[in-house]
Amino acid sequence: MRIYERYFARQIYLAFIFILFAFSGLFFFFDLINELNTVGHGNYKFTLAVLRVALQTPSRFYEIIPVAALISAIYVFAQMAAASEFTIFRVSGLSTGAALRSLLKIGVPMVLITYLIGEVVGPYTDQLSERVRLEALGSSVSSNFQSGVWVKDTLTAKENGEQVTRFVNVGTLNPDTTIANVRIYEFDSKFRLTNVRIAKSGVYEPPGHWKLTGVTDTQLNDAPPQAANPGDALNPVYRATQSTLPEYSLRSELTPQILSVLLVSPDRMSMFNLFRYIQHLTENHQDTQRYQIAFWRKILYPFAVFVMLILSLPFAYLHTRAGVVGMKVFGGIMIGMSFQLVNTLFSHIGNLNTWPAPITAAAPALAYLVIGLVGLKWVERH
């Protein structure tokens, strides 16, 4: 890097670290206040609430990094403009294009850190955070249905190669990914009910099997034709055979990673888990819109750092008479907050209107990129 690039990078990184930790500390305080309503229930103590909120900090970093990059760059450039440093750089031959390229170089480590936190650290600590809370409260994860979680599972039977469709009802999903109160309804390729299994509990045994305990297995077969009164409506159509098993190994495409989507929101999942869950939903002909938008947002969100840095560059061309440093930083905060608001709002609107997921995820960043380039062109001319 050139001398002026190192100077820019040092100033921006120092301001970035300070702002990142200042904002995360503010969010830590608000999150902790929100957790106080639960403290005292079960074994959920204040220290566990602090631990839970602390484990959520990496995800807060992930959300804050683009805004922190914007505010830090605006602060540094506003300081330079106030001291006429940036004017000296321009007189010395620093063009707008060169300054823009230097900013993008400075943004590369921030983008890499955002990817690292969003893909590795954040999803892991979020699941740990949720487990700390649930284990302390003695609770389990469930859906909004009173009967628990319903999941569709489709696979090919090894015996005859026919496609088997299961509807799995998990009454309780524990924080350690074990399941309880399980009911499995199995249908053949013609969607005729062939088997009903009820299990007290289950644990995953890789690869591709669930070990169920306390199983009641009801097998439904076609009843033999009745010799007498063949037209009688009361003649049995199916013959049920019930058996009780202490243990049963169930082959399934479902994994704890797929079920773990209930522990964290899609926006806080890793791209790998999102991709696998989208595949599972697609194979079972279920709606994937919400998860596709979350997946594309995970891909594109780190690049918002570049957009924020481009938005900050026009502030370097505004002299002191155009506004004090504090006002410029406040303007940067408002721009960053508006970006987060528009980004979140666009995801919900895209989900409701079934817009293509890549466009829904990329549109806010592209809009702010255009605003930044237009603003840069305007201040350069004036």
UniProtKB/TrEMBL annotation:
<dbReference type="InterPro" id="IPR005495">
    <property type="entry name" value="LptG/LptF_permease"/>
</dbReference>
<protein>
    <submittedName>
        <fullName>LPS export ABC transporter permease LptG</fullName>
    </submittedName>
</protein>
<keyword id="KW-1133">Transmembrane helix</keyword>
<feature type="transmembrane region" description="Helical">
    <location>
        <begin position="103"/>
        <end position="124"/>
    </location>
</feature>
<dbReference type="GO" id="GO:0015920">
    <property type="term" value="P:lipopolysaccharide transport"/>
</dbReference>
<keyword id="KW-0472">Membrane</keyword>
<dbReference type="GO" id="GO:0043190">
    <property type="term" value="C:ATP-binding cassette (ABC) transporter complex"/>
</dbReference>
<keyword id="KW-0812">Transmembrane</keyword>
<dbReference type="GO" id="GO:0055085">
    <property type="term" value="P:transmembrane transport"/>
</dbReference>
<keyword id="KW-1003">Cell membrane</keyword>
<dbReference type="InterPro" id="IPR030923">
    <property type="entry name" value="LptG"/>
</dbReference>
<feature type="transmembrane region" description="Helical">
    <location>
        <begin position="329"/>
        <end position="349"/>
    </location>
</feature>
<feature type="transmembrane region" description="Helical">
    <location>
        <begin position="12"/>
        <end position="30"/>
    </location>
</feature>
<feature type="transmembrane region" description="Helical">
    <location>
        <begin position="355"/>
        <end position="376"/>
    </location>
</feature>
<dbReference type="Pfam" id="PF03739">
    <property type="entry name" value="LptF_LptG"/>
</dbReference>
<feature type="transmembrane region" description="Helical">
    <location>
        <begin position="299"/>
        <end position="317"/>
    </location>
</feature>
<feature type="transmembrane region" description="Helical">
    <location>
        <begin position="61"/>
        <end position="82"/>
    </location>
</feature>
